[in-house]
Amino acid sequence: MTSDDDTNRDGLGQVGLRRLARFQRVRFTTAMSENTETAILAGGCFRPAQELPRLREGVISTRVGYTGGENDNPTDDNHPGHAEAVEVIFDPERTSYRDILEFFQIHRPDLGEELAGSGYRSEIFYTSHEQRQVAEDTIAATDASGIWPGKVVTKISEAGLFWAAEAEDQNYLQHYPVGKNQFRP
């Protein structure tokens, strides 16, 4: 038996898994406008983190990769200082940046880099002043809500280069819905 605070191998607690399952049941097909925005979010392993935004109405595409680190062309085996992140291209006329930030629902924004590690840290990479303000407001609201046991420690940083991860990491849970790792081939 597990509690809501227990986490699985992908870093999702039981509450996060239930929320992810709820969002997976909904698929949207809508026309998009010609305007797009990019959101770059880091919150633990990028494999499960890709699922929530990718299923939102107004999201055009998602891809997983690395950002915020020290080297060019990072890989799974060589990404010093980089966070595993999700790049979300969305139509701001169909969904808001604030709605995209709902990734707080499936990761632990109160676990700092010293606990989660640099690659799995919680960080929002903004692409505009408006995104930075929305990120600050979202963190403040999440912190004030008290839904997490600790203070939200999510960093907010200006977006730099985003390096796409290897092909086998893209849309991972679409290929392996129950996950796959060294313990479960």
Give short descriptive properties of this protein.
single chain, 7 helices, alpha+beta, six-stranded mixed beta sheet
Give a brief outline of the structure.
The chain is α+β, with helices and mostly antiparallel strands and 185 residues long.
Describe this structure in words.
This protein has 185 residues and is of the alpha+beta class. It is built from seven helices and six strands; from the N terminus they run αβααββααβαββα. It has helices at residues 14-24, 46-49, 51-54, 97-100, 113-116, 129-145, 172-175; strands at 37-43, 59-67, 83-90, 122-126, 155-158, 162-164. A six-stranded mixed β-sheet has the order 5-4-1-3-2-6. The longest helix has 17 residues, at 129-145. The relative contact order is 0.19.
Mean pLDDT across every amino acid position: 78
Rg from Cα: 16 Å
Element order, helices and strands?
Answer: HEHHEEHHEHEEH
The count of DSSP E runs of length 2 or more, i.e. the number of strands, is 6
Largest sheet: 6 strands, mixed
Low-pLDDT ranges: 1-15, 17-30
Describe the global form: globular
Structure annotation, total helices: 7
User: What structural class results from the helix and strand content?
Assistant: alpha+beta
How much helicity do the residues have?
25-40%
Which strand order spans the largest sheet, edge to edge or round the barrel?
Answer: 5-4-1-3-2-6
Distance between the termini: 24 Å
Strand content: 15-25%
